[in-house]
Design brief:
The protein is mainly beta. The chain has one helix at about 95-105; strands at about 10, 35-40, 45-60, 65-70, 80, 85-90, 115-120, 125, 130-135. A hairpin with a 2-residue loop joins strand 2 and strand 3.
């Protein structure tokens, strides 16, 4: 999970795995370092790395979520996300490794030879600082 290059290209690419991923709230703990996969950059998956802070209700899915802190700050240092969006970076986790491998197999062949950042357009952030996958947006919001 390297930092993306400075250039950016946006493309809407279907997410073949995350909407059906079955990961419970208990899979993550406060203090875990996680990544939210957003796309491909120079032949690798890339995403936003964050620290799990505390349990938090994920309003867009009406399920238990996690409050995450982005250590790089920015306009939204804290967001709430559903567990199925998250992948462990801080520890060896077979479930997350299987998911990462499946995402690599699904995405990397599509972008062979691309040297720019490809944001697959799967996530948006609501006015309540809730990270929402396009498959979880209800009523267009």
């Amino acid at each position: 999970m390297s930092q993306p290059p400075p250039t950016s290209a946006f493309t809407s690419t279907p997410d073949p795995l995350t909407p059906d991923r079955d990961i419970t709230h208990q899979h993550f703990q406060a203090g875990d370092i996680v990544v939210v996969i957003r796309g491909v950059a120079v032949g690798e998956l890339w995403g936003d790395s964050m620290r799990v802070v505390a349990p938090s209700w994920h309003t867009p899915t009406d399920e238990n979520g996690w409050r995450l802190r982005d250590s790089t700050g920015g306009t939204q240092s804290y967001v709430t996300a559903h567990p199925r969006y998250l992948v462990h970076l801080s520890r060896h986790c077979p479930d997350c490794l299987i998911y990462l491998k499946a995402m690599e197999n699904a995405l990397l062949p599509r972008y062979t030879g691309h040297n720019e950042l490809v944001d697959c357009g799967w996530y948006t952030t609501t006015a309540l600082n809730q990270l929402v996958h396009v498959a979880d947006i209800r009523g267009g919001r």
